[in-house]
Structure formats: structure tokens, C-alpha cells
Amino acid sequence: MGALEPVVPRKIAEETVEEEEYDEESKDLENGGVNIQERAVQIHPPIEFHMSRMQRLSATNPLRLVVENSTRVASPSPLQHPPPRPAPSVSPPPVQQPVPRSTPTPRQSVVTLNSRSYTNKISLFVFLVHTVIAIGLVGFLIFKGVQGLIEEGRAQREEKELLKYFLPQVEAASFLSITLAFLWQKAVRLWPKFMVHFIIWSSFGLTLSAGILLICFQRPATSGVGVIFIAFAIGNGLYACWVTQRTSFCSKIFIKALEPVSKFPDLNHPTYLMLGAGFLWMSFWILAVMGSLNFHAPPLIIFALVLSLAWTAEVMRNVANLTVSRVIALYYLRGMQSSTKFCFQRALSNNLGSACLGSLFVPAIEALRVVARGLNLIEGEDEFMFSCAHCCLSVMESIFKRGNGWAYVQIAAYGKGFVKASQDTWELFLKREMERIVDSDITSAICFLTGVCSGSMCTIMVAAWTAAVHNRYTATLSVLAAFIGYLMVGAPSLIIINN
């Protein structure tokens, strides 16, 4: 039994040392180290060593003391092993795992779709200053008009004449244009395929009829306006013949664009609100025009009022445009039915600067681009007058990439500035090879021709009415009625389809 006594401590020592070796190996691997086999060799006594030989040694023999200590002590000596593990408080921080690349994408998308920053602050500031000046000017001119009615004399007679023969026709044109706006929207929703052809050809017929009617009055002013209407009608007819092959494609776009509209019963409310605000502002505006006749430089003031009205009406149209774009974009991107009210508030606050900037430049840019494309189509190889057509088209394409009507969707969805949204949208079209498809789209032209139809109808009504009661104002009121009909109908009536 004496020879077997050291065997049990040895087994216990071996198991203890193996556990410590496993812990040290795990620690080294976690810290990026490698397992060193020499440590195990130093801990274990040699296999060839026989414990029976120790019985021959005395109890005080140094060799026996060393061997017995190595087998009885569970932990290795400080000279043979590394220092003990540091306390958890001083241990190095764990290595952070790298964040997967797919994680930032949804996080960035959520932040972008809910951006709260104001876009195009400079244009927003300019528009607000313009609005304050316009309100002050309109209020002052209305005061001058009332003052002219009170004071006896020539100004009083002119003011009464304007109130009797000028104001009713303008108000009637405004009311008719709003009614037509509602009818156009309803008709396009019910018969989208038919309305595409009807709008294209009715704009030609109504414009031609208005021009012929004005010429029949046989006055120099009305004849001049009538010639302009007829010339526009001829161009409209040529355009209708040119886009005949695109009408079926446009009808499909209308049908596809109207699919989600039924899910949002209040989607048209911002448009109706803008139309109502436009009608009120138009009433005050016409009173200011009448009051300007009692102030200095009436033509210059009227011209400034016309420009202000055009910009304001375009901004109101784009506010409704941004609202609809936001609602539809969230429906397709998130699959959610967002509140039209909140989207409308966002368009009036965060995105109003982009609406102001786009309203100032997009109509002119798109009109010039149409002219450049028309010149490029009729260009002849040996004709000198069209030698710069390609150059003009290239310049207009460069400008169009930095400012186009397609940008309003990205402005509403991602809160981008107008120029950035225009560039990103056009780059997206180029990457998807959709440039030819975009150029083939005539929805914007349909919206424009809708305004032309309504303007021509207002002109026919106002011209016939004015010629019967006071022939002197026929030409002026005809132009003004066409302008009001286009502003009140052409832009807002098909906002949903244009998106």
C-alpha cells in the first residue's frame, strides 16, 4: 500500500493542472494569443519518472520535497506560470464586433423619410418677404380704390364703371374655373382613357373658337388677341397630331396613377383648400387692380401684380403637389396610409422653400425645353437657321437636370432640396434607362392643356358677356379670364395624376 499512496494525489494534481491549462488556453484564444505547449511540459512531471523510487529518498531530501510539492499544489508556481488573471475591473474591454453593412440602410432610410429640416431656406425667405409686400400692396391699393369711390370726380365715375362692368366678369371667371377644376378631376377618374383624347382635341377646338369669336367683334384690340388665340390653336393642333401615338401610353399611366387614390378619401382636400384660398386671393387681387388706376404708373403696378399672382398660384399648386406626393410615396415605400393632414402641414412648413424655388423656375425651364426639342425635331442638315438647335437642346438638357417637375416626389418623400432632388431624380432615370420613357410621357402636357381648355371656356363666356354690356373692356377681360382659368384649373386639376 505504501507504493500506491502517491498515485491518488498525482491524479488529482493532473486533473487540476488540465483544468488550469484549459482556462489558460481559453484566455489566450479570447485575447488573440496562441496556446503554448511548453507550459504543460513544465507543470507535469516526466512520464518516465517512477514514484516508487521516491521511497528510497529520505523525508528531508530536496528532490522528494520538490516532486511532492509539484503534485500536491493545485496551481503552478509563479516561476513556472504567468501571473494570475487580472481583476474584472482592470480587464481590457471586449472587442466590439463589426456592425453588419446591412444595418445602416434601414436606419438611414427611416431618418431620411422623417427629415425635419427646412429645404431651400433662402427661397422660402424671399417668398415670405414677397408675400408680406404683396399683402401690403394689395391692401393699400384696395384702400385707394375705396378712397376713389368716396371722393367725387372722375376717379369716382371710373371706379363705379369698373365695379359694374369689370368685377362681375372676373368673379364669374373665377367661379367657373373652380367648377371646371372639380369636373375635370371627376371626369378623369371615371374615364381616364377617354379624357386623354378629349383634352388634347378639345383644347384645340376651344382655343380656335375663342380666337374666332374675338375677331368677330371687329375691334383692333380684340382682333389682336384673337389672332394670338388662333396661332396657339394651330400649334396645339400640330402637337395633337404629333402625340397621337403616345396617348395610349398616357392613358395607362393615368390608370396606374389612380390605383391608390381610392384608399385615401381625403387626398383631394388640400387641392380644394388651395382652390378656395386662390378664389379669395383672386377677389382681393382684382380689387387691387381696380385701385391701381387711382395710383401712379398703373401699367407697371398691374404687371407686378400679375407676376405676384402667377408665383403665388404656382406655389399653392406645388404645396398640394407635395402633399399628394408625400402620401403616395409613403404608401409605396412603407405600405402605410399616412395622414393627409400631416403631409399637408409638412408641405406648408418643411418643404415650402422647395415649392417656392421650383415654382419660380420649373415652368420657364420646361417651356424652353419643349421649344428646344421642337427646334431639334424640325432641324435640317443644310439649314443655317437651325444650326444651333443641338447646342440649345444640350444647354436646356443640362438646365433641366438641375430643375424639373419630377423632383417634387423626392422633396416630399426624403426632404431634399430642389436642386439635389432634381439631380437625383434625373440620375435615377438614367441608371434605369428610362430617359426615353420620361420624354414620351405627356401627363404634364395634359395638365397644361386642361388649363388651356378652361381658360378658353372662360374667355368665351367673359368675351360674349362683356361685348353685350360694355364693349370697351372686351379685350382686357378676355386676356384676364384666360389667365385666371389657366391658373385655377391647369395646375391643380390633375395633381394626383401628375405624380
From TrEMBL:
<protein>
    <recommendedName>
        <fullName>Choline transporter-like protein</fullName>
    </recommendedName>
</protein>
<feature type="transmembrane region" description="Helical">
    <location>
        <begin position="196"/>
        <end position="215"/>
    </location>
</feature>
<keyword id="KW-0472">Membrane</keyword>
<comment type="similarity">
    <text>Belongs to the CTL (choline transporter-like) family.</text>
</comment>
<feature type="region of interest" description="Disordered">
    <location>
        <begin position="71"/>
        <end position="109"/>
    </location>
</feature>
<dbReference type="Pfam" id="PF04515">
    <property type="entry name" value="Choline_transpo"/>
</dbReference>
<feature type="transmembrane region" description="Helical">
    <location>
        <begin position="221"/>
        <end position="242"/>
    </location>
</feature>
<feature type="transmembrane region" description="Helical">
    <location>
        <begin position="122"/>
        <end position="143"/>
    </location>
</feature>
<dbReference type="GO" id="GO:0005886">
    <property type="term" value="C:plasma membrane"/>
</dbReference>
<feature type="region of interest" description="Disordered">
    <location>
        <begin position="1"/>
        <end position="34"/>
    </location>
</feature>
<feature type="transmembrane region" description="Helical">
    <location>
        <begin position="473"/>
        <end position="497"/>
    </location>
</feature>
<feature type="compositionally biased region" description="Acidic residues">
    <location>
        <begin position="15"/>
        <end position="27"/>
    </location>
</feature>
<feature type="transmembrane region" description="Helical">
    <location>
        <begin position="442"/>
        <end position="467"/>
    </location>
</feature>
<dbReference type="InterPro" id="IPR007603">
    <property type="entry name" value="Choline_transptr-like"/>
</dbReference>
<keyword id="KW-1133">Transmembrane helix</keyword>
<feature type="transmembrane region" description="Helical">
    <location>
        <begin position="163"/>
        <end position="184"/>
    </location>
</feature>
<dbReference type="GO" id="GO:0022857">
    <property type="term" value="F:transmembrane transporter activity"/>
</dbReference>
<comment type="function">
    <text>Choline transporter.</text>
</comment>
<feature type="compositionally biased region" description="Pro residues">
    <location>
        <begin position="79"/>
        <end position="103"/>
    </location>
</feature>
<keyword id="KW-0812">Transmembrane</keyword>
